[in-house]
Protein 1
Amino acid sequence: MYVLGVVCVVKRVHSIRAVLLDIDGTLYHQQSLRGLMAFELSTVPLALGSIREALRVWRILKCFREGREALRAIEDSGVPLVSLQYSLVAERVCVTPREVEMVVREWMYRRPLKYLRICRRRDMMEFFQFAAERGLRTGVFSDYPVREKLQGLGIHAPLTVELCATDPEINAFKPNPKGFLHACKLWNLEPGEVLYVGDRLEVDACGAKAAGMPCVIFSRRTSRGFAGDAKTKYRSITTFRGLCDVIYSAI
């Protein structure tokens, strides 16, 4: 039974023409970055000269992360997520949406950029070269803004799709399939021709499955074939070399 399931998935990915990648936790080691940022956040009281202000910053960031996860369950909010993600936190913390946005942009978007190169996964750049040599289109789709992170990572590959879940054309966080399918539309490809690469089973693999895309997940638990439950099918890898092996056998 297991072998038949593997064969079925391999057939579906046998005509890969593009690779769509997540960024956070996929192009770089997120745990390493979080460790560095945790140390920097511990210096907030000194930077702001106030324990009270530091507590405000910490609470805003905590509520923002929790709010982002809660918004994943919304299929169609009817309100732009780019503003809703801030207004919901503002109500909870009793500050203005503008204050929330400023804290998030500073501590989640700007300050981590300087650490990205030292945290990026080994052989990442070689992967993009591998894809280019084989005529594969490459792009990124993340729940967070992508352009500055790509620059921070030092990626200069010709990415033809750069998408964020809060883009007006998407307005839905993963695992909603809208972003995955929008990438297919831009590439004029069928979902089965696009391999999605992420690091979270419940977000990336489930979203790819909902869109009809084959999926590879960075995980410490490797598998020789495609694994998963009735809802998801994915290949587990630990390195970009492993990703190249998966693609090489499927094109």
Note: Residues 32-115 form one domain.
Protein 2
Amino acid sequence: MPGVRLVLASASPARRALLRSAGIDPEVVVSEVDESTVASTLGSDDPETVVAALARAKAEDVAGRLGAVEESALVLGCDSLFTIDGRTWGKPSSAAEAVARIRAMRGRQGVLRTGHHLIDLDSGRSSKGVEATTVRFGPMTDAEVDVYVATGEPLRVAGSFTLDGRSAPFVDGVEGDHSNVIGLSLPLVRRLLADLGHSITDLWAAP
């Protein structure tokens, strides 16, 4: 079934780049979901519950807008949070917060969770999942932390780090899917597509 259309309900350039690296050129329709409002209504601060709910809210928001004009598509919503020592973080709100986080993370390990929610507008069916990856950080001097934060990169990503940027040399290893740490789990996306009757090859762009 060639030509299946994937819509990414996210402004994240890393998520789009990951999909493109796997042969998929998604359309991007950014959700209008207020993440803080969704999280505050859950009655739970469990990170797996939160990322699953936010991914669903984003996918449903975009699917609702596309469905109103009867457009056929698969809509993918994602959201990520990082947990270390019982503390859960999304994107830092300031450079000072990013500095404090990274200093607390260096030489330690935590878990990056990403919620995924996929909706097929044609069938109305959906499939969902949460991927978790353990990340081990190497040492960073205070000077290295300050220089890294000054680049602005950690202000744009959950947990204040990423594997596809300047922080990559400071990650000593991961246990699990590395693409999940960058923004979304490509193997999980493959499984969600299969749940809805699609092969990931159906989404490949022409070479």
Note: The first strand starts at residue 6 and ends at 8.
Protein 3
Amino acid sequence: MTPALFNCTQQCLFCWRAQSGDIQATWNEMKLPPWDSAEDIVEGSIKEQLKILSGYKANPKSDKRKFNEALHPKHVAISLTGEPTLYQNLAELMKRFHKKGFTTFLVTNGTNPKALTELEEEPTQLYVSACAPDKTTFTHTCHPQIPKAWNKLNETLTLLPSFKCPTVIRITLARDLNMKNIEGYAKLVQKARPTYVEPKAYMHVGFSRLRLGFDSMPNHKEIKEFATQLATETSYNIINESSDSRVVLLSRLQKAIRFGDG
């Protein structure tokens, strides 16, 4: 889910969402709307989860165990589209989810460090997209819509060690775009000291197809090679991977922390 549907500080080439100008419609993505209350968003999210499940109960092909689990969600990814730290009641949103027994998985592009410093409630896990190793690649890949975005991303990375929750740096990689300068990525990782680093392949889906070609999508072998080199540069270890999703997980832990298994 997302509390900031049409608002973002970046227009990343690899992003699947509809950006201003993609659908013969333009809007100012930095003009913030009147925000819904945190309570309305939480209750609305749960309501919509139940709505999308309608029809599955009577379908004989449905997995009944999975259906019953889906009726009682316990994890929320605040990440679907837009930049969630633009939402002014973010801490209250997470607090309300936590009170209902949810874990919260907050994903940010890191360009709004002030919002992170003002959080009164930490997410269960904090996920920062750092998809360029240097300012030039960042500007070309992520198309920031605010001044000093690269500096602000780096400021966010310096904040990560202060969080008590597990932290993640995600690196979405597109062939012939940002799969270079591994030493630069390593410096970002060393600055942030995240719990995990997640190199993953760009997927040729959604509106990103208007910006990048199918050949921009790396295969898993390329992602594994990138991850292996990054592991060497950072002294992180490869602890997991998924060839279907074209993603590799790095950490200094022996295995990933798991939440909500009980």
Note: The first helix runs from residue 38 to 52.
Protein 4
Amino acid sequence: MAAITAALVKELRERTGEGMMDCKKALEKAGGDIEKAIDDMRASGAIKAAKKAGNVAAEGAIAVKADGKAAVLLEVNSQTDFLALQDDFKSFVAESLEEAFAQKLTDAAPLVASREAAREALVAKCGENVNIRRLVRVEGDVVGAYLHGNKIGAAVVLKGGDVELAKNIAMHVAASNPEFLDSSEISAEAIEREKNVFLQLNADKIAGKPENIVENMINGRITKFKAEASLKEQAFVMNPEVKVGELAKKAGAEIVSFTYFKVGEGIEKPVDNFAEEVAAQVAAAKQ
């Protein structure tokens, strides 16, 4: 029997979302075999993954489907990454995506309604909160999409070019997450915000310098910011010698739009304090 160490308990807790004492008991029953403990917990329905901080579903998966003329990006959230890797969850996501694509849905609301019974059945089975969070459908002359694992998805619409080019640019979007399509779209507010950040970070460097020198430093930073934030101005990840906009232009194409999804983006996640939880559960056990 393997020793039931605190590190082993912590690993099981992180993989299942269960409480420390429940994980310790499961490991003791499984003779210290963490994989067997997980299987036993699943089989008995013990894995509930209630995250102690309000069942916040901030993990999950991104799913993408495209046919060259349209693409759908879908985000389905779970409470733990553990569930996102399970077949039941994957099936729910895949079926939801197929329905959204076939029905040409453009937002999540009708999908949420039609998939509610299936969602409730999954929640009842796995004990976790599961939500269809968001959905986007894009259409155009040429549409390509890319999925990185099950965590990041991107779609690109082109005028001209081909699907392979659109898919490659979507891959770039997934890797770089640009804020804007073109530098002309960058708002005055965004530029002012970047300027203020630069001044705060470089207060020591610019102190005492002539006004024109400071202005040149600011302009240099803003120029760099525009290049970093704009998809067309970014260096293409597969060939940094060429900008993404130039890549499209050489292929006789124009980038019309892009969409980027990342699992849990914008969701405030609870921060677990393992030490505090251990102390609290030990205190409770003594009562």
Note: The chain has three domains: 6-54, 59-184+230-262, 187-227.
